[in-house]
Amino acid sequence: MSIVVKSWSLSTEQVHQINDKLVIKIPNTKYNKFAPPQRIYPFEVKDNENVHLPFAYAVQELQLERRPRNNFSQIDISFIGTLRGEYCYLLLYIFITKHI
What we know:
alpha+beta, three-stranded antiparallel beta sheet, two-stranded antiparallel ribbon, 30% helix
């Protein structure tokens, strides 16, 4: 899950923090020691406007606000199948007792 923010809403300090902490450098081994260093970028910048950041990093490190739950569409799921075996009924009982 990610948080999408506008690039212009990030401060210069936040941009530097993202570039410093969210770029993962893969160390070279003895088999590729002369190859250019490889990097993984766990964020994405689209159209130079929207920045997709990992959810936990954006909330904990950058203190960005998460969207309220009521902004997301609600789905209604109903199970109309049948459970097989006693183990399934035991799991269902445990789930119901812990979530009520």
